[in-house]
Write a structure and sequence with these properties.
Keywords: Membrane, Transferase, Transmembrane, Transmembrane helix
Radius of gyration: 20 Å
GO molecular function: transferase activity
Protein name: Prolipoprotein diacylglyceryl transferase
Structural class: mainly alpha
Pfam families: DUF6787
Shape: flat
Helix content: over 70%
InterPro entries: DUF6787
Distance between the termini: 46 Å
Length: 171
């Protein structure tokens, strides 16, 4: 446990929540992907279902952990954070925000009255993707605040909007 605390620069016991949450979310994601691939190989309701799921979950988990550790090394010097455990929190916020924005765009498009039944598919998906952008921007700051990373995400938003030529919205 001490080695984990040193590696992620954890000073307080509550900060251990982020590495644990990160590991659990990667495990859940690996399991979800493995379960969805069962349909691809027609292994549902067979004797091999759980063997396939467990094996693929382990392989995906290992690959994702390796990928995320590689990502941490790439952004470690670019992101201005005080402690390494904050990078885990930031990655979790990005994951939750992206998923939530994608999920919320569907009901919002439906609420506006634009369904794929009454508008052409290309128009529907274009509008849905365009709606994801503002939802994502708002959620990024809000969820970042919940995870204690408000300042990082507010600075991230300002920089992104300025690069897109939308810096005038910040005034």
């Amino acid at each position: 446990m001490q080695k984990l605390k040193q590696r992620w620069e954890i000073q307080e016991n509550w900060q251990i929540l982020f590495p644990i949450l990160g590991v659990l979310l990667v495990l859940l994601t690996s399991y979800t992907i493995a379960r969805s691939l069962l349909h691809l190989f027609n292994l549902n309701n067979t004797i091999y279902e759980w063997i396939f799921t467990a094996g693929l979950t382990i392989v995906l988990y290992y690959a994702m952990i390796k990928f995320f550790l590689w990502c941490f090394k790439k952004v470690e010097n670019r992101w201005k954070v005080d402690y390494k455990w904050e990078m885990i929190a930031i990655f979790i916020v990005f994951a939750i925000t992206g998923s939530a924005a994608g999920k919320l765009a569907g009901p919002l498009v439906h609420w506006i009255g634009l369904d794929d039944e009454n508008v052409p598919g290309m128009v529907y998906w274009t509008l849905r993707i365009l709606l994801i952008f503002p939802i994502y921007q708002i959620l990024l700051v809000c969820i970042g605040w919940l995870f204690g990373q408000y300042q990082f995400f507010w600075n991230f938003e300002k920089k992104m909007l300025k690069r897109m030529g939308l810096g005038s919205f910040l005034r």
